[in-house]
From TrEMBL:
Listed GO biological process terms: signal transduction
Keywords from the named record: Glycoprotein, Leucine-rich repeat, Membrane, Repeat, Signal, Transmembrane, Transmembrane helix
This protein's name: TIR domain-containing protein
InterPro entries from the UniProt entry: Leu-rich_rpt, Leu-rich_rpt_typical-subtyp, LRFN, LRR_dom_sf, TIR_dom, Toll_tir_struct_dom_sf
Length: 1215
């Protein structure tokens, strides 16, 4: 019984311990990261990023496990977005010492935001002002709780408003930074004085005056006014403890006052013409910078300070060394910068007392001679810069006794290395670049034991002789690039054991045979832009690791037989290398660049033993095939990063390594390289290459395990026929034969199908001569999957031509001359899915094709001669039918449809089924947008086979009307195929009695008016006829709408056909002279029936008038061809007249009409009859000889009797 309570107690303690161990550690607030504070590790540093939009809650409300009071530093960023702190955000942060807020755009802080930050010592604010919404105001009320603040920074916040009582609100402030705010003014309340403020930075603002503010900071030690617009500094005497003044880049000219305590002055980039007296009289001045002013020699006083160590007077107008400034400090000065002035000469001894001088920079002046005794022998100078002068001479003793470490003589006019340099034994870095040195002498450089770096680039050196650098045991780097060096002597680098780097770019070196033999310590060699032709690996030092030999003439690499080579990086870009074999490449290489050479072939196993290779650049060569055996690395340690773009690569079957060139493979292609398909040369990115794209050409090949290759007839031996190109893949699963016709071979030989390889999987016959396919043309080709026979002139395919092709899936017979197929051509082709018949002459299809091809899904029939759509194609998946003369029609045989044509639910009855079929199966047609209804209007009238579209005027040429099928289907049940529209008359007549009565009345009135008009016209017409008879001119016109006379009453000598626009010319120049000669003429527009040029109809009356004439005078002008001849009634009547062999046609050609450019119908008429040019001087002679003889009129009695029989009493004038 006692054990049970003990057991329960142990269990309870175990649960408590588990809960204690499972309690999660301290978590950071949302959007924050926590770390130990670098100053006080027991406290916390919190970094909060509110760049993403999210709800900001006070830190005290976050589940931070009571650690809020342990935060000592808090850094907040907002990524330049609008932000607002909750009033209680900093609540309970009583231990916070350092607060930084950056990029949180706001207009002001709330009054209660900093209430709990009584311990805050540093406040940094950056980029606070909104970019466009207004200014950021730092209010006095917000700063009141921060009475113990020591450092306050507000920077990079434009449009800032600083309170005038800032110094009163922060009595313990020691550091104030208000830089980069664009402040125009900085004012304070007169009663606010910061007794503890030491450092002030108001640089990069727009201040013009700072005097009023400075009077409130009496204890200031350091002030920065750089990059403002201040012109005067007269109030600095109110700062008796000032030590450092930075007033760079202002507008100060001279007016300045300083307390004697100042030791550092920076007045660079102002408008000074001399050193201000307030500066020159400073007793303890240590550093003075007056660079980038306009100071001239002789304008300044002696500097009173004997403590001056640094003087920078560069970028001024000094023409001599300002030694008078340095009379009191010449033994103290350590750094003197006088570059970019106008100094032409430095007299000897002017710096004889400058024993403490360490740096002298007189570069970019006008010195010609550097004389002896300018510098004292016991000087501490270590850096002498004399570059960019016009130095021609360094006197022999000018550098004697100096302890120089860096001597810069670049960009001068030295013709040889000055002998004075040999006396500087501690020299480490020598720069003689960009001079005119043409020869190197012994016993100059080799005497400088500590020499580390020598730069002789951009000179005129022609060779490097022996022992030039001998005994330079510390020489590490040598640069002789951009010279004219063509020869390296054998001992040029002898006894230079630490020489690691030689740069000889852009010289004339042709060989490295012996010049580097003594440079045993060399690690990096750059001989780019030289004339090297043969690169001998044996001529290179064994320890060389990096070789750069770009832009040479290298066309041969010798064998790399030495196993001691340490080369890791070799760059031979832009040379003339054509072949790359394994023995020409060192095995130690890690990076090899042979880009932009002429490499067309890689030898077998070229990189097989390069196990250390990591990067290979073959870019910009002439490689067409990179076989797997050439690129494979047998024991590679690292993946190889390959660049191979800008090569004419062919997707060859020997390049199967490309299929695995991903990120995880041994070879990783870095660039966007392409290879071109072996058949049609289309580019394929290597990254998307597939196995089926890799093909090899062949002329004759045997498949693996083929046992009949030695025999002539072997099914596993593939021989490519003449005029064909053949390709296969690596595994012989793909065998493509592509044959094309030749336009140069005459006569053209008929292609022999039996010569095609039996194992072909794809056959393309394009443009060859193949008019007929005979039975069993392709029998036995069990692997054939795609067969293309295009543009071969194929007219006939015999039965069983495609017999027994069990694998055939695609058959292309497009662009031939086929008229029909029965289906018996495709026996035993069960897998055929795609059949291309476009571009032939089919007008119908039989059902047998689809019975023999049960799996057919895709069929192309575009550009054939189908007028109706074969219904047998409805079972297919995809069809093309554009480019066929499909006829579209509708009929009103269905009476129910006639009376309900307005109903959208009724379907019309179709005469031709094209539109009906498309209405139901348009989703099957892949080119439905291009399908058109096609109607030959002329043919329809001549053959009396019209459709609903026959009434439309031609819009394609003179005979054809076309309409998009989509448009026809859209409008057939609204306008095209609707006999009448359902409107007012379709409603109940009882509701429109008044309208009917009015309509009938209007109709009766119109009929009366028509009768009266006809009577008036007839009377007028009769009067005109009588006048014509009196003038011996016959009238051929009849009443409009009347039937033609049963027999011609009058006979005319000629019917004149012409353009209405040429009527005046025809009457004056042709008809009137003929009528004066008693020719009886009938003119088209004067005497013929009235017709509408837009009406597509045939005029029987016009045909009868022309038939009553003995000949036709056809006046051909541009107006006639463009207007009258394009109408159906003119063209038809003239063609009928020309077919009558008893009639004559005389064609009169007007200006600008070429008989050879007329259309076929008119040209046929002119070829069989007479044509005369109107401008011919024999025009009237030829015309009279072509006109029929003038026949007498018929007897008067017969004519009068006939008139009487038809019209009644004949007028006496006619008789």
């Amino acid at each position: 019984m006692r054990r049970k309570p003990i057991f329960l107690l142990l269990l309870f303690l175990l649960v408590l311990s588990i809960n204690a161990t499972d309690q999660p550690p301290d978590e950071c607030p949302k959007f924050c990261k926590c770390a130990p504070d670098p100053v006080q590790p027991t406290a916390k540093l919190v970094l909060c990023d509110y760049s993403t939009n999210g709800t900001v809650v006070p830190l005290a409300d976050a589940n931070y496990n009571n650690q809020i009071a342990n935060i000592r530093s808090l850094f907040i960023t907002c990524d330049l977005r609008q932000f607002r702190f909750p009033d209680a955000y900093f609540k309970s942060l009583t231990a916070l010492h350092h607060l930084r807020i950056v990029g949180c755009h706001m207009t002001h802080f709330s009054v209660k935001l900093f209430e709990d930050l009584s311990s805050l010592r540093t406040l940094e604010l950056g980029q606070m002002s909104p970019p466009s919404t207004g200014a950021f105001e730092m209010t006095e009320d917000a700063l009141m709780p921060l009475a113990r603040l020591e450092k306050f920074s507000l920077t990079r916040s434009f449009n800032v408003e600083i309170p005038q009582r800032l110094l009163c609100s922060l009595p313990h402030l020691q550091v104030l930074n208000l830089s980069t705010n664009g402040l125009p003014t900085l004012r304070r309340e007169e009663t606010c004085v910061a007794q503890q403020l030491l450092i002030v930075d108001v640089s990069r603002n727009q201040l013009t005056s700072i005097e009023q503010f400075l009077r409130g900071v009496p204890a200031i030690r350091q002030i920065s006014l750089a990059h403002n617009s201040i012109a005067q500094l007269d109030a600095l005497t109110a700062t008796p403890f000032l030590q450092q003044l930075d007033a760079e880049n202002n507008r100060i000219q001279e007016s300045i006052s300083l307390p004697d305590t100042v030791v550092h002055v920076n007045l660079a980039g102002n408008l000074l013409r001399k050193i201000p007296d307030a500066v020159s009289t400073l007793p303890s001045l240590v550093a003075l910078n007056v660079s980038r002013n306009e100071i001239e020699s002789g304008n300044s006083s002696v500097l009173a300070s004997s403590e001056l160590e640094m003087l920078d007077a560069s970028y001024n107008n000094l023409d001599q060394l300002p030694t008078e400034w340095l009379q009191n400090c010449d033994k103290r000065i350590a750094h003197l910068h006088l570059e970019h002035n106008r100094i032409q000469e430095i007299p000897g001894g002017v710096l004889s007392n400058a024993t403490n001088l360490q740096t002298l920079d007189i570069s970019s002046n006008r010195l010609r001679v550097f004389a002896d005794s300018i510098l004292p022998e016991n000087s501490k100078i270590g850096n002498l810069r004399l570059s960019n002068n016009s130095l021609e001479v360094l006197e022999p003793k000018s550098l004697e006794g100096l302890k120089l470490e860096h001597l810069d003589l670049s960009h001068n006019k030295l013709s040889e290395i000055p002998s004075a340099i040999a006396k500087v034994e501690q020299l480490k870095k020598l720069d003689l670049s960009n001079n005119q040195i043409s020869k190197l002498y012994q016993y100059v450089l080799n005497k400088i034991k500590q020499l580390h770096t020598v730069d002789l680039s951009n000179n005129q050196l022609q060779s490097i002789g022996p022992y030039i650098f001998s005994d330079s045991s510390e020489l590490h780097s040598l640069d002789v690039s951009n010279n004219e060096i063509s020869l390296l002597f054998k001992d040029a680098f002898a006894r230079c054991p630490k020489l690691r780097k030689i740069t000889m770019r852009n010289n004339r070196i042709k060989s490295l045979d012996e010049g580097l033999s003594e440079a045993s310590g060399l690690r990096r060699l750059d001989v780019s832009n030289n004339l090297i032709v043969v690169l001998k690996w044996s001529a290179l030092p064994e320890n060389l690791e990096i070789l750069l030999a770009d832009n040479n003439d290298i066309n041969l690499l010798t064998a790399s037989t030495s196993s001691k080579l340490s080369l890791k990086t070799v760059s031979l870009a832009t040379n003339r290398i054509t072949v790359m074999n394994a023995e020409q490449i060192p095995n130690s290489l890690e990076s090899f660049d042979v880009s932009f050479n002429r490499i067309a072939r890689l030898g077998k196993g070229a990189f097989g033993e390069k196990s250390q290779l990591r990067k290979l650049n073959l870019k910009g060569n002439q490689l067409t095939v990179v076989p797997t055996e050439s690129i494979r690395i047998l024991e590679g340690v690292h993946p190889v990063k390959l660049e191979i773009s800008q090569n004419p690569l062919i997707c060859d079957c020997q390049m199967t390594w490309l299929l695995s060139s991903g990120k995880t493979s041994r070879i990783q292609i870095l660039d966007d390289a392409l290879c071109h398909h072996a058949i049609d040369q289309h580019p394929i990115p290597l990254k998307s290459l597939q196995k089926k794209d890799l093909l090899c050409p062949y002329q004759s090949i045997c498949e693996p395990e083929c046992i009949c290759c030695q025999y002539g007839n072997c099914d596993c031996k593939s021989v490519c026929p003449a005029s064909c190109r053949c390709f296969r893949d690596e595994q012989f699963n793909i065998n493509i034969v592509r044959c094309a016709g030749s336009n140069t071979t005459v006569p053209k030989r008929e292609f022999v199908v039996s010569e095609l390889p039996v194992s072909a999987t794809e056959i393309i016959l394009s443009g060859v001569t193949l008019p007929q396919l005979r039975t069993h043309s392709f029998i036995g080709r069990l692997r054939l999957q795609r067969l293309h026979i295009n543009g071969t002139g194929l007219r006939n395919i015999q039965t069983k031509a495609f017999h027994t092709l069990p694998s055939l899936k695609t058959l292309d017979l497009s662009d031939n001359a086929l008229l029909s197929l029965t289906g018996d051509e495709f026996l035993k082709c069960p897998e055929l899915q795609q059949l291309f018949l476009n571009g032939n002459r089919f007008s119908s299809l039989t059902r047998g094709i689809f019975e023999k091809l049960p799996n057919l899904k895709h069929l192309t029939l575009h550009n054939n001669s189908f007028e109706d759509v074969p219904r047998v194609i409805s079972s297919l998946s995809k069809i093309s039918l554009s480019g066929n003369p499909l006829r579209c029609d509708c009929s009103a045989k269905d009476e129910q449809y006639r009376h309900s044509a307005g109903s959208a639910h009724q379907q019309p009855f179709w005469e031709h089924n094209a539109a009906e079929w498309f209405a139901q199966h348009r989703e099957l047609v892949v080119d439905f947008q291009a399908v058109e209804c096609w109607e030959n209007v002329t043919k329809a009238f001549l053959t009396n086979d019209t459709t609903v579209l026959s009434a439309y005027p031609p819009n394609v040429g003179p005979d054809v009307f076309e309409m998009r099928m989509e448009e026809f289907l859209r409008d057939y049940n609204t306008t095209i195929c609707v006999p009448f529209s359902s409107g007012f008359f379709g409603q109940d007549p009882q509701n429109s009695i008044i309208f009917v009565i009015v309509s009938v009345s209007i109709a009766v009135l119109l009929c009366i008016l028509v009768v009266l008009a006809v009577s008036f016209v007839r009377k007028s017409h009769d009067a005109i006829n009588q006048r014509r008879y009196k003038a011996s001119s016959l009238n051929c016109s009849t009443s409009a709408g009347s039937s033609p006379l049963p027999i011609p009453l009058l006979s005319y000598h000629a019917f004149v056909s012409y353009s209405k626009k040429d009527e005046k010319m025809v009457v004056d120049q042709l008809c009137r002279p003929l009528e004066d000669e008693d020719y009886q003429l009938c003119l088209l527009h004067r005497d013929g029936p009235t017709y509408n040029s837009n009406l597509h109809a045939i005029s029987d009356e016009l045909i009868a008038q022309m038939d009553s004439s003995q000949c036709l005078i056809l006046v051909l002008t541009k107006h006639f061809l463009e207007n009258e001849w394009k109408t159906l009634q003119i063209k038809t009547s003239h063609q009928l007249f020309a077919k009558n062999r008893s009639k004559r046609v005389i064609a009169v050609l007007g200006d600008g009409v070429d008989a050879n450019l007329l259309d076929d119908e008119l040209g046929q008429i002119l070829r069989k009859h007479t044509r005369i040019e109107m401008r011919s001087h024999l025009f009237w002679t030829l015309l009279h000889s072509s006109l029929p003889s003038r026949l007498p009129l018929p007897p008067n009695d017969d004519s009068s009797q006939l008139y009487s029989d038809i019209y009644g009493i004949v007028p006496s004038d006619v008789v």
